């Protein structure tokens, strides 16, 4: 399998973002977004997905973090789609259950070529530190629309909002890791009866 590493930049009047992604990394991350709790969550994806992720984002944080978080999702989705390539020889599907103390989340992913998000996380509070939990939904929508994947996220239990969020992002990393892993029995084959996973 070829090297699955890519750098993608996206520049608008609201944000300037560069994402470097290596799907076959070791879980190394480097973030400079100006949104610390969001970076803590992205680090979970890198660490538990064994992806190397570097993100530099300059956004209109004087307004709020909405554009920055959403546009990081968009740019990460673009990078993910390009790094995965034609999807031949990969598992395509991934899933993970992750607990953290009282919290438990399930994430299931299909690299289907069709964006779909089912997102069910009843956060127990609206803010985690200075981070508005509504922005996680914007991140996931940006990500799936540009990665062209189906993503089901369910927080099954949880009383601490930090724990709820962390289990979601850890499970996301592990589910994506499973989905992009090479499948020796599918070497050179697109894992679809249609023969394509593009659109």
UniProtKB/TrEMBL annotation:
<keyword id="KW-0368">Histidine biosynthesis</keyword>
<comment type="pathway">
    <text>Amino-acid biosynthesis; L-histidine biosynthesis; L-histidine from 5-phospho-alpha-D-ribose 1-diphosphate: step 6/9.</text>
</comment>
<dbReference type="InterPro" id="IPR020568">
    <property type="entry name" value="Ribosomal_Su5_D2-typ_SF"/>
</dbReference>
<protein>
    <recommendedName>
        <fullName>Imidazoleglycerol-phosphate dehydratase</fullName>
        <ecNumber>4.2.1.19</ecNumber>
    </recommendedName>
</protein>
<comment type="similarity">
    <text>Belongs to the imidazoleglycerol-phosphate dehydratase family.</text>
</comment>
<keyword id="KW-0456">Lyase</keyword>
<dbReference type="Pfam" id="PF00475">
    <property type="entry name" value="IGPD"/>
</dbReference>
<keyword id="KW-0028">Amino-acid biosynthesis</keyword>
<dbReference type="InterPro" id="IPR000807">
    <property type="entry name" value="ImidazoleglycerolP_deHydtase"/>
</dbReference>
<keyword id="KW-0963">Cytoplasm</keyword>
<dbReference type="InterPro" id="IPR038494">
    <property type="entry name" value="IGPD_sf"/>
</dbReference>
<dbReference type="InterPro" id="IPR020565">
    <property type="entry name" value="ImidazoleglycerP_deHydtase_CS"/>
</dbReference>
